[in-house]
Amino acid sequence: MNDIPYATHRRNFWIAGAEAALYMAGSDMMGPMTLIPFLFAKTNIESAWIGLFTVAALLGALGNPIGSAWAGGRVWKLPFCLRVGFVQRLGFLAVPLGSLFLFERPGLLLGLLVLAWTQTYLVGGIGAPVYQFVITHGTWESWWGRMMALRSVLAAIAGTGATVFVWWVNRTFTAPHNYEVIGWVGVGMLFLSLYLVSRFREIPMEARFSHGAESLGATFRKLGDILRRDGRVRWIVAAHIFRSTGFLVGAYMTAVLVERRQLTDRDMWIPVLLSTLPSIASHLAAGWIVDRWGPKPALVISSAIISANSLLIVYCFGMPAFVLLFVAGNFAGSLLSNAWPTLIMKLAPPERRHAYFSTISLSTAPGNLLIMVLGIVMVRYTGYTYVFYLGVVGGLVSTWLFTTKLPHVRYAPDSADR
User: In terms of pLDDT, which residue wins out, 196 or 357?
Assistant: First the structure.
């Protein structure tokens, strides 16, 4: 890595941040934290079904081993990421097209959106471990935490601009045209982010390993071997499953805000702003914590905040309480999103990083899915209160597991910063 010019590391650092900013801002603008709860309220779709979008997101782990098998042996992996990224972004067309053709048919609209989110995350899961390898292999390890933070900081800045755009759209257009305009602009931002990915200067692998569809069975055996032999991985999987109860708060936070504060389309800018503006400080702080303290403290703090936030939302009715809820949840999510990939990449040998990423993501998926399905059923039949109490317990357990069982990994096996 020290033979690679400084300018290449710096260029890759900023491109990885800029493309993620466009992608995250565009997808968040159309997603279950912002547009979808208002769309559901407008078309009389029950808010409990919002949890299906988190279930769809968790299904992305099923694609991880496929990506590891198909791209694991390629010296140049970026072209694979670009092809997968193009197909993955097509699913988001369901937002503007669904608003255009199915606004008066809420049952079909719900089915189309859930199907689209499932396709998007499954295909995205194929590319995720490969792309994580590309951006970490192309940037100095001492920058990894800040690189993950930069992506989200720039996304927050872009999201703040998206807040103004959403505010203008909802005062200029009436339903369903406002949803169509937001959807098309969001899709445009996603494809622009893909163009930026193509500008990344990839540093290729020095050796070629077995790859292709014929190695998929071998890939699954390799993943099982990692899980069986590396006890650290098993504890990480268990801790993450309990930490995933925090996704329940994230899934229903905006819906609770809309319901309790009686928000309309004209107020859509409020959750967009609450979801993006605090991210600037949150991700800067999270990146600094991960780089200076390591991934373990970040995950411990994140889990503790999730437990407190799950209790706060039960008694959250005034706007100041919702501001605190969104800010705290944003910081907890920032810590998780910065620490999680950094931990995996530091834990694994360089040639097996995508395999470790796939192993941990795939192993956590069944427990995460079970928790989200349980959450949907609980919200559907008992309301929000009990599902948030589940988040309190899960946050406490994950805090204990991350504290006592998670290895304090500071450097990758091949680190020059050791």
Answer: 196
Confidence of residue 191 (pLDDT cuts 50, 70, 90): very high
Residue 255: name the closest of 25, 32, 30 by CA.
32
Which pair of structure tokens corresponds to residue 225? Answer: 């071997």
Distance CA 36, CA 45 (A): 10
Selection from 223, 231, 246 nearest residue 361 by Cα: 223
Task: Give percent helix, percent strand, percent coil of the chain, each to the nearest 5.
Answer: 85, 0, 15
The three-state DSSP-derived secondary structure of 90-111 is HHHHHHHHHHHHCCCCHHHHHH
Q: What is the pLDDT of residues 122-140, one digit of tens each?
A: 898 888 878 878 887 777 7
